[in-house]
Design a protein that fits this description.
With about 400 residues, the chain is of the alpha/beta class. The protein has a domain of about 270 residues: Alkaline Phosphatase, subunit A (3-Layer(aba) Sandwich). Helices cover about 35% and strands about 20% of the residues. The protein has 13 helices and 16 strands. The longest helix has 27 residues. The radius of gyration is 24 Å and the shape is globular. About 45% of the residues are buried.
């Protein structure tokens, strides 16, 4: 071996060692971000409602999947103008990290447009997904793509969804499918059934909008949309995980508040449990390199579980009159619920003892209103260690944004 060749080999070896040490130093010191970032948003995620749902599911020793999350906080959720928020302002707190006036979607009080988490994820090169048990253009999901002070204008929300750069995956109920046909010009695939959604090749990179009927999107029987929520989460993860930069998935459950608004405790519990199963599905399919945050949004109806149920009481035993002969479930506002009397709050009530499944309302209204109270924030994964103590909903946005 000549001296010249030996020197070249030594130089090459030194270069390889230098590159290895440099790569190790970079990987050891550069901030690493989770591949999967998933935000779950639901209503009535407060200790009282979750305890009642847990008892309904399996009695005093039952546990929810969310209870495995190591990081928990109580979150304040006021709007910019009201102490108790509406859906639009609370959703915007999570989506943009700013308090806005009631009815506004990602528009601050001065009229400035606010970037949402989906906007930030797109800018970071991540895939983006949005799944909801309600309409894709409803107020809750719209907070993540719309910018308007007229948040309750359904036509405005639809127009903004159509004008927004297509999300990689969006699924939920929808208005007439014809309203979305103009998206096909942007290369968006429109799907109208769970079967077609399940059979869609995961390697296809075209954006997808799944417009599912209300019956497809509820729990068994009356509530079939929430029952498919775990499946929608699984499919969304499958569709989004092909991006090497990772993805952001927002999962919004409108069905919990809908059940609370009509004072139907049984349906609300079933929808909370379906939401809980969807969270478990996300943990299973997203893998360890993920950040999953579960955020309460608003409290609706003011549900209270009364009496002293036995440790193993569950199901109908939690819905029926308690051992003291009083209703187990009571609401602060709403139409009340009774299988023995008309649901119409204007109908004449009798003076008889409440029926066995009655859920009376303290202040009768056609639909339950918002109720005061902090909501829960839960997290697991890199960055979630900041979720503890008392926070604002806007703080949860900051924790997620930092990891995009």
């Amino acid at each position: 071996m000549t001296m010249k060749l030996r020197n070249r080999l030594i130089a090459l070896l030194c270069l390889i060692i230098f590159l290895i040490l440099g790569a190790a130093l970079f990987l050891g010191t550069a901030p690493r971000k989770p591949f999967a970032v998933i935000l779950f948003v639901g209503d009535n995620l407060n200790p009282s409602a979750l305890a009642a749902a847990r008892l309904f599911a399996g009695g005093g020793d039952a546990r929810l999947q969310m209870e495995d999350f190591p990081n928990t906080a109580l979150c304040r959720n006021p709007a910019n103008d009201y102490s108790i928020p509406d859906k639009a302002s609370a959703s915007t707190s999570l989506a943009s990290g700013k308090r806005v006036n009631s009815g506004s979607l990602c528009i601050d009080p001065s009229g400035a447009k606010l970037a949402s988490l989906l906007d930030e994820a797109t800018k970071a090169g991540r895939s983006t997904g949005l799944v909801t048990t309600g309409e894709i253009t409803d107020v809750g999901p719209a907070a993540f793509y719309a910018k308007t002070a007229k948040g309750h204008d359904a036509t405005e929300r639809l127009n903004q969804f159509l004008a927004h750069p297509p999300l990689d995956f969006a699924a939920g109920e929808g208005p007439a499918a014809e309203s979305f046909q103009k998206l096909t010009a942007k290369g968006v695939a429109i799907i109208n059934s769970m079967n077609d959604l399940e059979n869609q090749p995961f390697w296809k990179k075209s954006p997808t909008v799944a417009l599912l009927s209300k019956n497809t999107a509820s729990t068994p029987g009356q509530d079939s949309a929430s029952a498919s929520l775990p499946d929608l989460v699984r499919i969304a993860i499958r569709q989004l995980q092909g991006n090497r930069h990772g993805y952001l998935l927002v999962v919004e459950d409108a069905s919990i508040a809908e059940a609370a608004a009509i004072n139907d405790g049984e349906s609300m519990f079933k929808r909370l449990l379906a939401f809980d199963q969807a969270v478990a599905t996300a943990r299973r399919y997203a893998g360890e390199n993920s950040l999953i945050v579960v955020a309460g949004r608003e409290n609706v109806g003011g549900l209270t579980l009364n009496g002293y149920p036995l440790l193993r009481d569950k199901g109908v035993a939690i819905l029926a009159l308690n051992a003291q002969g009083n209703p187990s479930l009571c609401w602060s506002t709403g139409p009340g619920y009774s299988t023995e009397e008309p649901r119409d709050p204007s109908a004449k009530k009798t003076n008889a003892r409440p029926g066995i499944l009655s859920q009376p309302s303290a202040f009768p209204l056609p639909r339950a209103s918002g109720a005061g109270g902090d909501v829960l924030g839960l997290g697991i994964g890199d960055g979630s260690e900041k979720i503890h103590g008392f926070l604002d909903l806007t703080d949860l946005h900051g924790i997620i944004s930092e990891k995009l």
